[in-house]
């Protein structure tokens, strides 16, 4: 851990402003990353979930739930990802009516090559924090994601 000067106290308003800046930078960054990969942001997000799942292959329904879109929308996303060489569909060994989505290794390598320098910098940034501080950050990210997803669902209710 790199020695850092004491951090000044911050108000919730300052934290929200900093979060808004991070979200804006992330949205623009994701758009640029997706363009470099020949994808749109939603397709890249779905592919990210496929990568994250690893060998525990997701179904179209799993993806729809994670991205908060309909299964019909996921079908279109998977069609585009398959045509672009990012995924393949495999029959579910336990249920022939379902398919599982597998990431193509060459596509995973392209995505990792693009993201690894950024993630290395984030790892360096996290090294400035103690394990206890990183635990607080992880808790906040997790809880804020749950809150954001719940609010998105509320907005969709009639």
Describe this structure in words.
A hairpin with a 2-residue loop joins strand 2 and strand 3. The termini are far apart. The model has no long low-confidence stretch (mean pLDDT 93). Helix 2 packs across helix 4 and helix 3 crosses helix 4. The protein has six helices and three strands. It is mostly helical and 158 residues long.
Span of the ends, CA to CA: 49 Å
How large is the count of helical segments? 6
Shape, please? globular
Structural class: mainly alpha
Q: Give start-end ranges of low-pLDDT stretches.
A: none
Q: On the 0-100 scale, what is the average pLDDT?
A: 93
**H and E string:** HHEHHEEHH
* Percentage of residues in strands: 5-15%
Number of strands: 3
Rg over alpha carbons: 18 Å
Largest sheet: 3 strands, antiparallel
Strand order in the sheet with the most strands: 1-3-2
Helicity, as a percent range: 55-70%
Write a concise keyword list for the protein shown above.
single chain, 158 residues, mainly alpha, 3-stranded antiparallel beta sheet, 3 strands
Describe the secondary structure blueprint for this structure.
Elements: H1 12-36, H2 41-53, E1 58-59, H3 60-67, H4 71-83, E2 87-92, E3 95-103, H5 105-126, H6 131-156
Antiparallel strand pairs: 1-3, 2-3
Helix pairs in contact: 2-4, 3-4
Quick recap:
By secondary structure, the protein is mainly α. 68% of the residues lie in helices and 11% in strands.
């Amino acid at each position: 851990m790199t020695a850092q000067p004491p951090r000044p106290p911050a108000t919730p308003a300052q934290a929200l402003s900093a979060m808004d800046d991070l979200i804006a930078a992330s949205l623009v960054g994701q758009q640029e990353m997706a363009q470099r990969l020949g994808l749109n942001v939603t397709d890249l997000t779905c592919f990210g979930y496929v990568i994250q799942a690893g060998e525990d292959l997701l179904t179209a329904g799993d993806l729809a739930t994670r991205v908060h879109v309909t299964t019909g929308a996921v079908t279109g996303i998977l069609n585009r990802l398959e045509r672009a060489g990012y995924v393949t569909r495999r029959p579910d060994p336990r249920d022939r009516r379902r398919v599982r989505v597998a990431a193509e290794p060459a596509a995973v390598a392209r995505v990792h090559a693009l993201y690894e320098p950024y993630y290395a910098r984030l790892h360096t940034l996290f090294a400035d924090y103690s394990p206890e501080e990183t635990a607080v950050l992880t808790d906040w990210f997790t809880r804020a994601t749950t809150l954001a997803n719940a609010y998105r669902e509320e907005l969709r209710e009639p």
